[in-house]
Amino acid sequence: MIVSGEKRLKSDGLFSIFFGVMSGGLAVTAAVNLWRSRFAAASKQLARRRMLMRERLIPLALLAGLGCSSPSGSSAGSFFAEEPLGSIVFMWRPVAGTPQPYRISPDGTNFLPISTPSLADKPQPSPDGNRLMYNFAGNQYVMEYDNSLLSQVTTDRHRLWARWAPDGQRIVAVRYDDQGNQELRITELDRSADRTITPLLSAYDGYLSHPSFFPRGDSLLYVQHDNNGNGTLWIAYASGKSPRLFTSPWGNSVPRFALARNGEAMAVTGLATGDDTPDYHTLRISKNWGGPLLSIDLGDVWVEELVFSPDAKFLVLTLERPQSGVTWLELLEVSTLRHRRISPEVGKSSAIDAAWGF
């Protein structure tokens, strides 16, 4: 090893110096020069080895920056069993500057801003992938991706959690009043109808989130939370029929979930543990409603949000390390449970509100 070589050279040099003192001044000078030349050569060799080590570590550091490992015998292109299709739309919150909707390819490339009005957020691609819905000042707007057509869908400035219906002609959203009371409403894009489909929930009793249509568009799942953070799954009906409790493969106490567009897969997080503490570190997936129940523990990070790809083969996860204040996106393959980071790692910039487009 280089270090042991340096020690040997130093001891050789000390011996030479001692001999030189005993033999005379010329011998001292010769010994010192010999020691210096050998030490310089060893130092150059050590520096070169360190440089080579840095060159080898740079690719690994880049992979770590993407939140992935380099599996033995596999390249970046074969990290997953299948290659994901489409693109992911999300809100990018830089350390300095205004948050803005962006889109990115599933492999982490093509990280590009989407042209929307300043302060627009909560981007949601339409089912056909041609339009984008976003929230601005509590109202919902729909635009073409080239910004050629823009229409306002809601006008009361009191909407949250807006999501598309499968037909692309309606949206559902949580509407709240000035007192914080909430209900679900379905709104036609042409504003010809705006109807309530759930009873008004008092702010003292909790709040609503995660409305997600089943494929036929005549019913949807949502979460009703109490003010202690506990969530229960309900089914609401587009006809306005009374909602009912929904039992998932893990019961109906589910604070966060994702429903596949084909209605055949579901992912959840935040299930209560033995001491009733929500577990946001673990992701659970059910395929085909009664197929194998998959589970993955993500360690010291929380799953803030989750959404399926259109073909239900992948999930985009919004993750956060507790108390860090930073969130990022990772892509997880359902069949292998392999996952890697896709959003850029830029200081304390964050990626949130992810949705999958075509």
Task: Write a structural description.
The longest helix has 41 residues, at 25-65. With 358 residues, the protein is α+β, with helices and mostly antiparallel strands. The chain has 2 helices and 24 strands. It is globular and about 50 Å long.
Chain-wise SSE layout:
Elements: H1 2-23, H2 25-65, E1 87-93, E2 100-104, E3 112-113, E4 121-125, E5 131-136, E6 139-144, E7 150-152, E8 159-164, E9 170-176, E10 182-188, E11 194-196, E12 207-213, E13 219-225, E14 231-237, E15 244-245, E16 256-259, E17 265-272, E18 278-287, E19 293-297, E20 302-308, E21 314-320, E22 327-333, E23 339-341, E24 350-357
Antiparallel strand pairs: 1-2, 1-24, 2-3, 4-5, 5-6, 6-7, 8-9, 9-10, 10-11, 12-13, 13-14, 14-15, 16-17, 17-18, 18-19, 20-21, 21-22, 22-23
Helix pairs in contact: 1-2
Number of strands: 24
The side-by-side strand order for the widest beta sheet comes to: 3-2-1-24
| pLDDT averaged over residues | 81
Distance between the termini: 55 Å
Strand fraction equals 35-45%
Rg for CA atoms: 29 Å
Shape: globular
Q: Output the number of helix runs.
A: 2
Order of helices and strands: HHEEEEEEEEEEEEEEEEEEEEEEEE
Largest sheet: 4 strands, antiparallel
Helix content: 10-25%
Q: Would you kindly provide a brief summary of this structure?
A:
With 358 residues, this protein is α+β, with helices and mostly antiparallel strands. The chain contains 2 helices and 24 strands.
Give structural attributes:
18% helix, four-stranded antiparallel beta sheet, 358 residues, alpha+beta, 24 strands, 2 helices
